[in-house]
Specification:
The complex is a heterodimer of chains A (363) and B (651).
Chain A lengths: L9 E4 L1 H12 L5 E6 L8 H7 L7 E6 L8 H19 L3 E6 L7 H15 L7 E5 L5 H18 L4 E8 L1 H6 E4 L5 E2 L16 E7 L5 H11 L3 E2 L2 E3 L7 H8 L1 H8 L7 E3 L4 H19 L5 E7 L3 H14 L2 E4 L4 E4 L5 H4 L4 E8 L5
Parallel strand pairs in A: 2-3, 2-5, 3-4, 5-6, 9-10, 9-13, 11-12, 13-14
Antiparallel strand pairs in A: 1-16, 6-16, 7-15, 8-14
Chain B lengths: L11 H6 L1 H6 L18 E5 L5 H7 L2 H9 L5 H9 L3 E2 L2 E2 L1 E7 L4 H6 L4 H29 L8 E5 L6 H8 L4 H20 L17 H6 L2 E5 L2 E2 L3 E7 L6 H11 L7 E7 L20 E4 H6 L8 H19 L23 H16 L6 H8 L3 H19 L13 H7 L2 H15 L7 H7 L4 H20 L8 H22 L3 H19 L12 E5 H7 L2 H6 L3 H13 L3 E9 L2 E8 L17 E2 L2 H7 L24
Parallel strand pairs in B: 1-9, 1-10, 4-8, 8-9, 11-14
Antiparallel strand pairs in B: 2-3, 5-6, 6-7, 11-13, 12-13
Helix pairs in contact in B: 7-9, 13-19, 13-20, 14-16, 15-16, 16-18, 21-22, 22-25, 25-26
The chains are: A alpha/beta (363), B alpha/beta (651).
Chain lengths: 363, 651
């Protein structure tokens, strides 16, 4: 497998390491553009706040991506308003200038992200030599996949001198109290649909690689029924902070994985929970292997879907971008916060991670 | 792979790719529901999710028809029905059916910001290309089985339809190769614009179509393969029309109903009971411009033998699914439905105790009145479960009789025939339910109740049947007869009901609001059902909103003014779209017309409600809206780890 773009990579885990990474990136004097989504998630402003402690007098341009309506209960509304207020305060203090890209109304979720990504690029709000940091903490995958993909593609095709980083604030305890509602219709995320596929898709061998996560059974099932794959290779997080996490996932999803889908035990793939590049490599290898092995009998379509952590999803994004894989999503249609939980106590578990995807380290 | 796979949980991929597997499990009885006019006017098929519209259309694709024709001894019922409806002629397919889903890509043209003047043209061009490619591939596959050998295919124009010359020119000419090339080029160009990660120029010169030229052309051609005319009429099957945005759907339907077209075309969409206006009313008149088939409504019609078409159909499907697994079992001559029939002694060892209690309670209720003496004497002579049910029925009748406004002046004995006259199937069913709850005996069992639990949804029927069959598999593996007792069926069904309830907040948009609405409906239903007089026998399982209130609810301005109305609208929309509630529009009740909302039947076991349709209570909009803001209907927090096992009945 030759010349993987991210064979060598830059990954920082924890506030200290992320801080060092940003110090290195900020040594070059240029505009810093920070792309984020600000909704109810308490983590929405954590990475930006951390970055602002390092930029000195420089004003950061914030591109605020609109979000679909998240929930109709009072608590999520209050949290959203609190985040809005905080961002307004930052803008009023002059440390940031905010440009907004509105979420398109009445548009399917799988197309909304590409719609916004194209508008970002057409608007010129991000300069050709900017340090661009995309914070995916408060963004759905249907938005950040095409946004990040679009930035990578623009740099590649147009030869831009941008640096691109992706940052995320992980907190499994907070994830546990955010309750997902509803299952959106499954479909490919626009911008991540295999372009080089054959015209007659009925003759294609479809290999599905879902990245498993907790409490995701309805979404995994929905995508399975939509895709009707010929082969399924689920990804389990291993190694992981909880060494039994993979076992627990299999116990939770046992009926679906073994009875309904009929996954063969040898088909499981393992990827380091804390390193998306491990998953990226695994997916690239898998795609190459299946394409080569099945070439004599026809075309292969490798399709992925993400049901685990956001940081792992970036590994899937990179593999999908490089190997022209299809990404399918069927996410929740709304969220609620579990009532009666002290959110402030849970935010102590925030963990920052940052990936440097394009620019200086790769030139 | 399990050694004894559950046939009700067959893999979607097998069903989708393997035509024979699909046909083996297809209930031919559904063809009885088709209207007489299938080929000359557009047929619009509507159903709730899982209602069977896609499977019905798939049966008429060329692949399926050829399989049935080649294996008529394997599929005799299907072959007979297909002949009956005109899809076969002389034992061979008379229809070249091609099926396309409208859920792929078309919507994205608008979602990605194509200007409206360009968007429709690209929509028609993409759809045209796909229709033509599907038709020429289906024709090529007919004789040699090779769908890619398109140079053998030609279209010979009759030149009887205006505009077919231009249509042919735009679609790539008259040859299979030319049509394929034009279609694939259009596909690549348009999908390239949809999937580019960089901004696109929508006016960049990708030409669109002002019309659906494929339908025009196919109305005017004879299809030739290897120089020989194919004696089959093309049939275009367009599935999932509800996935299109309104503008595209309107534009498509207007083209489909055009009277200039001779090509057969079917279109399917999901039933939307809360749509602001009826889409079809804008495009034509039913019966004149199109035929409409609403699957659930048609299925609910009786066959004249006490069973609805749907019950007959799903029972047939269940038997077909299970036949291979059961052949290997002990007692392999019994069908799946047979194995659910049980003559269990429902009272078993507690018969004496139960009968004693029922007799005592009923005599106490009757008091010293002579009026009921002969009624009591009739029941006293009976034994077993039948006696128990009659005692309970008698208690209901006495309660009702007492509540009559015009009581008799004298306390004279009433003959047993009077008891028969006052009773009926609905009272007996109420008695059965009350008896089961009060004395903790099974109620939810038997093939007829299983069919009702499906709520006119084939997918739901397969899911519950899968649960029941899982238990049967245990017996098959131990080499025992897989007959399920009434108690086991009742427990499994209650568990399935609980699972459906618990999944609602997770699976449905606005799931929390849906549960709140259901909690209110169920509270009202349970109160009304279990009144001693059983006024709405066998029970209430729904509610109703007047059509006037429904029209009000559809207006955003009204929703803003009435507290809880917005949440009600969200909950109703979600519940209806996901089969949790089932709506009957425009039902005449007393002096008004109502939208009746029935609970999904699979929710009824959790709340101890009957499965019959019929009983509902009308509510005004303001009252229903108030349910959404009242704390008493707040559903309990989700307990995903709590055991699904329930006692036979909840107290």
């Amino acid at each position: 497998m030759d010349g993987m773009k991210w064979e060598d990579y830059v990954l920082a885990s924890g506030s200290g390491e992320v801080s060092k990474l940003w110090s290195a990136a900020l040594e070059i004097k240029r505009q810093v553009t920070f792309v984020l989504g600000v909704g109810f998630d308490p983590r929405a402003l954590v990475p930006l706040t951390s970055l602002l402690t390092q930029v000195g007098n420089q004003r950061v341009r914030v591109v605020r991506l609109g979000l679909p309506s998240a929930g109709d209960d009072d608590f999520t509304r209050e949290l959203t308003q609190a985040n809005d207020r905080r961002l307004r305060e930052l803008a009023q203090s002059g440390v940031v200038e905010v440009e907004s890209i509105v979420y398109p109304k009445g548009v399917e979720s799988q197309a909304a992200g590409l719609n916004m990504s194209r508008r970002i690029q057409s608007s010129g709000v991000i300069g050709e030599k900017d340090l661009v940091i995309v914070d995916i903490s408060g963004l759905p995958s249907t938005v950040y996949f095409p946004v990040i993909g679009g930035l990578l593609e623009a740099s590649c095709v147009q030869g831009l001198q941008r640096d691109l980083q992706v940052v995320v604030c992980e907190n499994p305890e907070l994830d546990g109290i955010i309750l997902e509602e509803g299952v959106a219709s499954p479909g490919p995320i626009r911008g991540f649909r295999q372009r080089s596929g054959p015209d007659d898709t009925s003759k294609v061998t479809r290999v599905w690689v879902p990245v498993l996560g907790e409490h995701q059974e309805p979404y995994i099932r929905s995508i399975y029924e939509f895709l009707a794959p010929d082969e399924t290779c689920p990804v389990l997080p291993f190694p992981a902070r909880n060494p039994r996490r993979g076992d627990d996932l299999l116990r939770e999803l046992r009926l679906l994985i073994f009875d309904t889908i009929g996954v063969e035990p040898r088909n499981f793939i393992y990827a380091d929970e804390g390193n998306p590049f491990d998953l990226y490599r695994g997916l690239c290898r898998l795609s190459d292997r299946y394409t080569k092995a099945l070439a004599p009998v026809g075309d292969v379509s490798v399709v992925t879907s993400v049901h685990g952590s956001k940081i792992l999803s970036v590994g899937t994004l990179l593999a999908a971008y490089e190997k022209d894989l299809t990404m399918v999503s069927a996410g929740p249609t709304g969220y609620r916060i579990q009532p009666g939980v002290g959110i402030d106590k849970l935010t102590t578990g925030d963990h920052l991670m940052c990936l440097w995807l394009d620019g200086e380290p790769y030139r | 792979m399990r050694p004894h796979p559950n046939p009700f949980r067959s893999r979607s991929s097998e069903q989708q790719r393997d035509v024979r597997s699909f046909l083996r499990n297809f209930g031919a009885g559904v063809l009885e529901m088709l209207p007489k006019t299938l080929w000359d006017r557009p047929l619009v098929i509507r159903s709730a999710p899982g209602g069977g519209k896609t499977s019905l259309m798939r049966l008429f694709t060329t692949d399926s028809l050829v399989q049935v024709a080649d294996r008529q001894h394997d599929f005799p019922d299907l072959a007979d029905w297909l002949n009956e409806v005109g899809a076969f002629r002389g034992g061979r397919p008379a229809v070249l059916g091609v099926m396309l889903s409208l859920d792929r890509d078309y919507r994205s043209i608008l979602d990605l910001g194509a200007p409206s003047e360009v968007a429709h043209r690209l929509f028609f061009r993409l759809l045209d290309g796909r229709i033509m490619l599907a038709v020429v591939r289906a024709a090529a596959a007919l004789s040699s089985g090779n769908a890619t050998d398109l140079e053998r295919v030609q279209l010979r124009r009759r030149r009887e339809v205006d505009g077919s010359d231009e249509a042919a020119h735009r679609l790539g000419g008259d040859s299979g190769d030319g049509i394929s090339e034009a279609s694939l080029t259009a596909e690549r160009q348009i999908l390239g614009m949809l999937d580019s990660l960089l901004p696109v120029d929508w006016h960049s010169g990708v030409p669109g179509h002002a019309d659906l030229y494929s339908l025009r052309l196919l109305s005017d051609v004879e299809i030739i393969v290897d120089g020989v005319p194919v004696d089959m009429r093309p049939l275009i099957l367009l599935d999932d029309g509800h996935e299109l945005p309104r503008a595209q759907r309107d534009a498509l339907l207007k083209k489909l109903v055009s009277r200039e077209l001779a090509v057969s075309r079917w279109y399917s969409e999901r039933l939307e009971a809360l749509s602001p206006e009826e889409v079809l009313q804008a495009v034509g008149i039913e019966g004149r411009d199109y035929e409409l088939l609403e699957l659930e409504r048609r299925a609910a019609e009786g066959t004249g033998r006490g069973r609805s078409r749907f019950e007959k159909l799903v029972t047939e499907i269940g038997n077909l699914r299970a036949v291979r697994s059961l052949e290997r079992s002990n007692g392999g001559d019994d069908s799946f439905a047979d194995l659910l029939e049980t003559d269990d002694d429902l009272l078993s060892s507690s018969e004496a105790e139960v009968l004693e209690k029922l007799a005592t309670d009923t005599r106490r209720l009757a008091g010293s009145e002579h009026r009921y003496q002969s009624w009591i004497e009739t029941v006293e002579q009976q034994r077993g479960y039948v006696a128990a049910r009659h005692w309970r029925e008698l208690a209901i009748l006495i309660e009702r009789d007492r509540a009559r406004p015009n009581l008799d002046l004298f306390d004279l004995p009433s003959p047993p025939q009077e008891m028969e006259r006052l009773s009926g199937a609905d009272v007996r069913e109420a008695a059965t339910l009350f008896l089961a709850r009060e004395h903790r005996i099974p109620y939810y069992f038997g093939p007829q109740k299983l069919a009702r639990l499906a709520s006119h949804n084939i997918a739901q029927y397969l899911s519950i049947s899968g649960d029941l069959f899982e238990e049967m598999l245990g017996a098959i593996m131990r080499n025992r007869t897989p007959r399920l007792s009434a108690v086991r069926q009742h427990i499994i069904i209650r568990r399935a009901s609980e699972r459906l309830w618990r999944e609602i907040p997770k699976r449905l948009p606005s799931g929390h609001d849906v549960q709140k609405l259901l909690a209110a409906i169920v509270t009202m239903a349970a109160q009304e059902t279990h009144r001693p007089t059983a006024p709405y026998a066998p029970g209430v399982t729904g509610t109703a909103l007047s059509m006037t209130d429904r029209a009000q609810l559809l207006q955003p301005g009204v929703r803003e003014k009435i507290r809880g109305a917005a949440a009600l609208f969200r909950a109703l929309t979600s519940a209806l779209a996901n089969n949790i509630l089932f709506a009957e529009l425009d039902r005449s009740v007393k002096s008004g017309r109502f939208m009746v909302l029935y609970l999904n039947r699979l929710l009824c076991p959790r709340f101890g409600l009957p499965l019959n349709y019929g009983g509902f209570r009308e509510k005004k909009l303001r009252e229903m809206a108030s349910w959404m803001v009242e704390p008493e209907f707040e559903p309990p927090p989700d307990e995903p780890d709590k055991e699904l096992e329930l006692p036979l009945w909840t107290a």
